[in-house]
Amino acid sequence: MVASIETTVKQWGDAQIRALGWQNIASENESVDPRIDETLKGNSSKLGGEGGGRPDYTVILSNGDKTIPAFIEYKGSKGKLEKLDKQELVVLRGNGGDFDYKSAISKYAVNGASYYAMNALKGTDYPEALAIGVNGTKDSTGIVTYEIKCYVLNQKDPELPIYLGSYSNFDFLKNNPTEKRYLFQKLADVQLDPRELEQRLIRDDAKIEAVLQELNQKIHDEQQIIPSQRINIVAGSLMAAVGVQDRQGDWKITRLNPSDLTGSMEEGNTDGEKILTKVRNFLKERDLPVPKQKQILDYLQPNFVNSNLNKKSANELQTPLKTIYQEIYDKLIPIYDVTGINDFTGKLFNVMNAWVDVPDGGANDVVLTPRYITNFMAQLAQVNQDSYVWDWALGSGGFLISAMNIMIGDAHINYANDLTKQYEKIENIKTKQLLGVELLPNVYILAVLNMILMGDGSSNIVNDNSLTSYEGKYAYNEDPFPADVFLLNPPYSAEGNGMIFVEKAFNKQKKGFGAVIIQDSAGSGKATEINKRILKNNKLKASIKMPIDLFKASVQTSIYLFEVGKPHKADDNVYFIDLREDGYTRTNRKKAKTNLFNTNDAKGHYQEVLDIILDRSKKTDYFTEGDNYYKDTIDPESGKDWNYNKKIDTTPTEADFKKTVSDYLSWEVSQILKGENQDF
């Protein structure tokens, strides 16, 4: 084993840092800021022990407008600069969600520096921090090679280091006008890079999914809780654990701490009743309609109050409810706090779905539509701040969440100079402009939770059968919902692969757009009669063939985009687009911890499809008319010609004729030379 040269690396690095020109610098045993000292002391060391730890060197950088700390860690062995995951992002936590002290944070320079930077951000008001790893190796001739990598972390996502650059020395940190201006500009630029942000979102998804799978398996193995109970317990526990904060970050409803669950059997004071009381306060503070509050509490009551999970056996130190709640509080809440993901409980839904017995279909009949697809479809349907959006097979609420985020973003822009009107518009969006219908009770409760956690747009989540009894009205009054956007991923086991949902909804929606992602056999024969009826009053605008491995079960799907309320005429053009190569690479979803990789500008592919269909100028050239997309007509009386099929032009050209004649003459000559043509 080659000996580490970390001491040599430290001497080299320390000497360079002292020559950079910054006044506020500190080696391992010195201090640059008491606040940093205090927060590092209050966290575990790089090895996971108590008493905190100290970075090898700390430098405070400033350009006059912004001040940020830089944390530097040294290593002196081959391959010890950094440890990255499959998304090429710095590893801080392991697959189970715990900090990986043993094989990442303590072993690699960048990972250790990132750990210190993360803790400093969480415990101080610095907006950003740099994590700098330095490694050195010596070859057989005694020459030492140094390598430096720098990452920036910010308050919004303190656990997600963003790559800044690789260097051979510390000159990039010099305190002179040129270097300083370049450094701080680059800090701003990299945090807005679209590819970086996309990669971080993918990592968030993978992290959440890994923790949820472990949690779900543990609840199943240790508590033997039946599937129908499991989702309700996790949903209720999450509501009690997240609390409610005001705009200033002050707690209006504090989080229920696991230590408050004492296992008391006193009436009104059991662990389940304490959780349910916190849920009740949570719902009230979120200002949900009173009937919805009662509905949710009545639904959760049997699981938290009338349950043996409130009782501990003679050899148990705590109730099963507390054990589960502690796991959720320790493993899920930290991720909820730092990821800021838009569909947090959508991941919960997909993991728990593996344990749910779905009637009238297989488990694959109720699936989570990926967030990038729900966003894409909402954009296809031209959602804006004035849209009224509904989904008739809601699932976890992913479509409504994507629509809500676009609508709120639009309101922020349009009312940027009038914050009062902006606030009123956003409240109207959440309470009056979104509606979802979900039949399955355990999926319904998760959709409600999802919408509450992501922005309170849960007022009009309806637990009803959209094909039989739902009448197209608001949840808590008799007014028709004035829908002008329809978004759907239907159960494919329903009539016409699910197209029956589209027909029913369009009969009540009089204008606007609708986008459905569906098994594309619906467009080639499985829903012929339904499709013909749909086209009587609705125009098919686009048909987009999607990757076959988009969902857990490999199935060929297409997205159909409609303009509602306008009959489809025989000469209306339809965009047919092949998006099977969408820029993402997917792995086997059953085995992989991370199964989605942006390998070829996926965001650019989806944006270009939007630009083509919405008749906007393209910024990329991934799609060429006649190659992977075309415009064509369909027969409104067919109902089975809706899918993309690559067009091949069989009309002969002059060049084809010349080639054919040339080939024939060549053959004739060869026959003569062989003496096989008896006519000559």
From TrEMBL:
<dbReference type="InterPro" id="IPR051537">
    <property type="entry name" value="DNA_Adenine_Mtase"/>
</dbReference>
<keyword id="KW-0489">Methyltransferase</keyword>
<keyword id="KW-0680">Restriction system</keyword>
<protein>
    <recommendedName>
        <fullName>site-specific DNA-methyltransferase (adenine-specific)</fullName>
        <ecNumber>2.1.1.72</ecNumber>
    </recommendedName>
</protein>
<dbReference type="InterPro" id="IPR029063">
    <property type="entry name" value="SAM-dependent_MTases_sf"/>
</dbReference>
<dbReference type="GO" id="GO:0009007">
    <property type="term" value="F:site-specific DNA-methyltransferase (adenine-specific) activity"/>
</dbReference>
<keyword id="KW-0808">Transferase</keyword>
<keyword id="KW-0540">Nuclease</keyword>
<keyword id="KW-0378">Hydrolase</keyword>
<feature type="domain" description="DNA methylase adenine-specific">
    <location>
        <begin position="509"/>
        <end position="647"/>
    </location>
</feature>
<dbReference type="Pfam" id="PF02384">
    <property type="entry name" value="N6_Mtase"/>
</dbReference>
<dbReference type="InterPro" id="IPR003356">
    <property type="entry name" value="DNA_methylase_A-5"/>
</dbReference>
<feature type="domain" description="VRR-NUC">
    <location>
        <begin position="29"/>
        <end position="99"/>
    </location>
</feature>
<dbReference type="Pfam" id="PF08774">
    <property type="entry name" value="VRR_NUC"/>
</dbReference>
<dbReference type="GO" id="GO:0032259">
    <property type="term" value="P:methylation"/>
</dbReference>
<keyword id="KW-0949">S-adenosyl-L-methionine</keyword>
<dbReference type="InterPro" id="IPR014883">
    <property type="entry name" value="VRR_NUC"/>
</dbReference>
<feature type="domain" description="DNA methylase adenine-specific">
    <location>
        <begin position="367"/>
        <end position="495"/>
    </location>
</feature>
